[in-house]
Amino acid sequence: MKKTSKILIIGEIQNQHAAHVTVELLGEGRKLADSLDAELILTIVGNDVEKTCKDLLRYPADRIIAADHPSLKQKQLETHSRILYEIVKEQKPDMILGGATLFGKTLLPTLAAMLGTEVITDAAGLEIDKETGELLVTKPAFDGKSMSVVSMPEAPVQMALAKPGVFKKACETDGREGKFTAFSADWLQEITERKRTLDLIKEEKKISLEDAHIIAAGGRGLKGPEGFRLLLQFAERIGAQAGCTRPCVDAGWMLPEQQIGQTGCITKPDIYIAFGISGAVQHMTGVRAGTVIAVNSNPNAAVFKYCDYGIVGDAKKILEEFLKLPL
Predict the structure, then answer these.
(1) Is 174 helix (H, G, I), strand (E, B) or coil?
(2) Known binding positions for FAD
(3) From which domain of life does this come (predicted)?
(4) Pairing mode, if any, of strands 135-140 and 147-150?
(5) If the chain, 327 residues long, is cut into consecutive pieces of 10 residues, what is the mean pLDDT of each piece?
(6) CB neighbourhood size of 234 (10 A)
(7) Helices in 156-213 by DSSP H: which ranges?
(8) What angle, rounded to 10 degrees, do the helices at 315-323 and 225-238 form?
(9) How many other CB atoms sit within 10 Å of the CB of residue 279?
(10) Which position among 3, 161, 261, 269 has the lowest Cβ density within 10 Å, counted as fewest Cβ atoms?
């Protein structure tokens, strides 16, 4: 049986705060660590991160290791992978978990190559095989229509990247606080930079689908670009974010970052309004809403099994009529 004594979570900082997926992994990692009687360690790499790390001590990590250096201010693959490699060599974890964010999907596979091990991305479920002690990872299959459970029986270090929004955020601990350790990163200044960030161009602030309180999403029932133009107008009017199903991205009607479901993002809004969405499990897996409202012309559509309120009717026509109403 595979023995696991240390689980290392590679945390991520976004806008001077811990990314949501990092706090989610602390909760799931704690469950795995408790089931294995293992130590749970969180590592944070960046610049001026000590305060963020100490804030994270209220969550259920046994230890937090921080690498704090000006060279780590920007997310650079070369410097971040080098410092994490040194931390892993020192700590010798049996399992490494990280977030399947844009940077995480680049960083952790690079780290895995440096360690000579494997990594599984887009994890939607993590559990331990009771017979072998191996990490079992549930993730979307290649066809995007089903889920598969995979493991890494030959990997010297088991690594997995979890999709943001899949797991519940960790609860703050009551009376228990982990230890904080600083990892020296002074030697980073000796690394010759192959590339340097000269300037950052800030885009207009947008709320991600993972953080949205209200989402208006469309499916093929909106019948093309014109239907989605109406959806975007509707979303703007009610203060919602717009999302869609995978076929609508494949058709070019919406952007990939607006895709919700197994192969898109996981959402947890207060209200989810589905226009012309059939309700396939691949999409509804990404919908964890407080209230679901569905509009579909097919009274037998599967989406009505998931909704709290349903309207049988042409989704595009209903949007047209709504937009005629005075503000």
Answers:
(1) coil
(2) 220, 245-246, 259-263, 276-283, 296
(3) Bacteria
(4) antiparallel
(5) 89 88 95 95 91 88 90 83 94 96 92 96 92 91 77 95 90 78 76 61 68 95 95 95 95 93 90 96 92 97 96 96 89
(6) 20
(7) none
(8) 50
(9) 21
(10) 3
209-323: same fold as 6-190?
Answer: yes
Nearest-angstrom CA–CA distance, 236 and 222 = 17
User: CA-CA distance, 316 to 327, in Å (whole number)?
Assistant: 19
Provide the pLDDT for residue 182: 87
Bridge partners of residue 311, in order along the sequence: 295
Query: 114-129: string of b/e by CB count within 10 Å (b at 16+)?
Result: ebebbbbbbbbebebe
Topology of domain 6-190 in CATH is Rossmann fold (3.40.50)
209-323: CATH number? 3.40.50.1220
Query: What amino acid occupies position 143?
Result: D
Residue ranges of the domains in the chain?
6-190, 209-323
Residue found under tokens 């569905």: 294
Q: What is the pLDDT of residue 196?
A: 63
Q: How many CB atoms lie within 10 A of CB 154?
A: 7
Please give the Cα distance from 238 to 272 (Å, whole number).
12
Q: Assess contact for 255 and 242: CB atoms under 8 A.
A: no
Q: Are 156 and 115 in contact (CB under 8 A)?
A: yes
How far is residue 283's CA from residue 277's CA, in Å, rounded to a whole number?
9
Contacts of 143 (CB under 8 A, 6+ apart): none
Instruction: Tell me the binding residues.
Output: 220, 245-246, 259-263, 276-283, 296
